[in-house]
Design brief:
The complex is a heterotrimer of chains A (111), B (236) and C (612). Chain B is built from eight helices and two strands; from the N terminus they run H-H-H-E-E-H-H-H-H-H. Chain B is mainly α and 236 residues long. In chain B, helix 2 runs parallel beside helix 8 and helix 6 packs antiparallel against helix 8. The relative contact order of chain B is 0.14. A two-stranded antiparallel ribbon of chain C has the order 1-2. The chains are: A mainly alpha (111), B mainly alpha (236), C mainly alpha (612).
Chain lengths: 111, 236, 612
Amino acid sequence: MDKTKKQEQTSTHKIGIYLWIWGLLFVLSFFSYMVDWYQFQGMLRWSLILFFMFLKAGLIMAFFMHLYWERYALVNVLLWPMTAIACFIFLMVAEFEYTVFTRFFYFVVGG
Amino acid sequence: MSDLKIEGYEFKPGFKGMAKDTGSDQTMFKGVHWGKAMMWIFLLSDTFIFSCFLISYMKGRGSTIIDWPNPSEVFGLHVFGVDVPLLLIAIMTFVLITSSGTMALAVKYGYEKNKKMCGWLILATAIGGLTFVGMQAFEWGKLIHEGVRPWENPFGAPQFGSFFFMITGFHGTHVSIGVIFLFIYAYKTFAGHYDEGKRGWFTTMKGDYVEIEILGLYWHFVDLVWVFIFAFFYLW
Amino acid sequence: MSEDFNDNKTIQAQSSEAISGGGSGIATDADYVRPAEVADQDLYHGHSFITKWIFCQDAKVIGVQYFLLATFTGIIGLILSWLMRLQLGFPELVPFMTAEHYYQFVTMHGMIMVVYFLTALFLGGFGNYLIPLMVGARDMVFPYLNMVSFWSFFVAVGVLLASFFVPGGPTGSGWTLYPPQAILEGTPGSGWGIMLMCISLILFVAGFTMGGLNYLITVLQARTRGMTLMRMPLTVWGIFTATVLAMLAFPALLVGALMMSLDNVLGTSFFMPTILKAGEVLEYGGGSPILFQHLFWFFGHPEVYIVALPAFGIISDLISVHARKNIFGYRMMVWAIVGIGALSFFVWAHHMYVSGMNPWFGFFFATTTLIIAVPTAMKVYNWILTLWRGNIRLNTVMLWCLGFIVTFVNGGITGIFLGNVSVDVPLSDTYFVIAHFHMVMGIAPLMVIMGAVYHWFPLVAGRFLDEKLGKWHFWLTFLGAYSIYFPMHYLGFIGVPRRYFEMYDSPYVTSAVGMNEFISLAAFIVGAAQFILIYNIIKTLKTGKPAGHNPWQACSLEWLTPTVPPEHGNWGDRLPTVHRWAYDFSVPGAKEDFITQTTPPSEVAHTKVEKT
């Protein structure tokens, strides 16, 4: 990361980089809209949605919120807590699958 | 993002730098303004709020045995005799990203102490936010008109309406608060409060252009949340 | 530490020379500390009574305000527990006590004690008072926000207490507020009570967030020159990590409370499944009650550590000061605090083993729960090893510390029982659980609070508390608390369920009745004994022995202010400069048995002081 050098004159990044990111965000949003337009289904739809989502989120955080130019101390403090959320998501997926299983098992199949 | 040169402190890059910054005295985030650090930590906390909302939504949607309405149809618009799926949502996304871009530029011009440019861009951002809130109100009205209520809807699982109104409502509240602050900051920028370091109305802290970056962080975060809502609520 | 402080290395070399030979010729740049990065904070000084004492922006005053208000709510919680014990020990003695009242008291007692008493007191009270002093800041970084934080807490308490006076009374659904029963008719306070509870919690979270941001940024960004993270007293580490947990855990509570309010008011079904009531299907349907439990405990388990970690930190400082010995394994202690904090987000569902969640979760959560016991046990070893061969002052503060270690080990060990699924299932919802969590997060943190009050009162008020009264207070509390909670383990083993209004003619009667009476009597005495402290404070505020500067001969910064008690701005003209950690006690070769954090290396070069 040779950003530290850059950081010394960060106050003003070239305007080009913002315009580039701006344009990219529009393009990516257009693509994720196209996912719905063409009615992709199943895993393809999911992976495309997530791919565009994370790309957009990453661009906004990295450049609009300047995280790309921040020092690692701040970046790591902000990103590590997300592991707790990831764990929560992972477990809740298992949980809803189990709930829906029990619901079918007892209500539809009848125990 | 200020000029990072600290007397008696030599910066190191990457993880080595992180270890050194963390182990040093006085500050851990070198050169980061207190208010900016606060906004970041607040946004982290707010991220957990929205994550909990979206996780609840996932759990609720996943465990209902009544079919979930197809958002592509529910949120479609009928324009010029054609059904366009998610049209309004696409426009809202467009507006929000536009306003995010103007905000990013406002921050840049703020640091260049370009008062005029900065102020106009903040004003543009505020108007973008206002448009977004207006369109959201339109969308709510349309759905309510079609019979969607927090407790029931004609399309399928009743949780659809519950989660929709709650999550977009909470996000809309964030946008509205942001718009209010954007207008205030636009005024303060034009009035030159940041140039002369005028003290805040309540906090008695001295004004500084870093405040625009702090507000920018909040605004980009609102946009960021919309990215996730768009993916999970409208596209799923 | 880092390369910035390699000046200490030269001191090391010179000090060893100094001991063998002559001790002169210390390089002056050994005392060099980097200049300040941030300009001195400009503070708003209040002038009128209102801006000085009521809407005050001084963190110390806000800390005392938090302390007093939390104590006030704590006393209400205490009175509620008396009423509960009255019913349990002597059923039908009190005419007005109905089952509904009992459940309301259980609920309010739990919620008040955990959130509005312990959390507010440790983070709001001790956090506000001690953090700026201990890291060498003039004040919290956002004084105005800090003031708003307290007043949000004030309103939250007001809303909570208002629920006693609304139709239907406060909610009676247990402090966990589980839906569906929390908002269904038949549960006391299912209309107004639960609404006010949710609103109060949301206000508390909002207020706490403002305070928490202050604590975090003050610790991270406003330390004084020379104060590295690894030189901070463990008190600050404990409060800091607990605040991190709170910032990340309270969102789940906020979301849960918001969704439950919507279920209650708008009739949504986030948490409400299809319900058959008296043969009639209610309007709810399709929701997931277990989702609330997950949200609640995603908050609830970190909450346990939000209470415990400040206690861990504070007790480490008290033990070290009063055993005149450096804390054993400081770095290990810090990493244990941080590790416990991180792990606490991965253990929550061990509160839900019998809830009907995905049965595989038991395996995951039992494993993580047992892993979190490791850093906790390390801390206990380190406290004991700090005491080992220390020059112990057996004063009131030390008594509270010893009491804490005993009760904490006791409660911790029962926690290992309950962390295992197969042991937890039969013990779930019995008095064993009550005994466990009161030991580990009721009595143990309370011991720390008491120790901390006796320790820091000389700083806050400038006078010592009375030692004799303090010892009475300690022994009554300690022995009394054991009389209350030790028998409860047994009650749990014979299967007495918790949250039962009355046992009537159940088969446990013979052994449980006598024990319940005994527990109740002990509870009355312990509760009453707490008023000794209040009497002690009122008495010694005017007549106590003046403490003067640094009465305990501690090393940390809060004792080194130019005035005692410290004034607004804390440090007078110059901020202190820190050269070492807060635990240089009994250093061989030093004139006194402590070296303060501000003592420059050149002054103690002839001693065997270690580089920190």
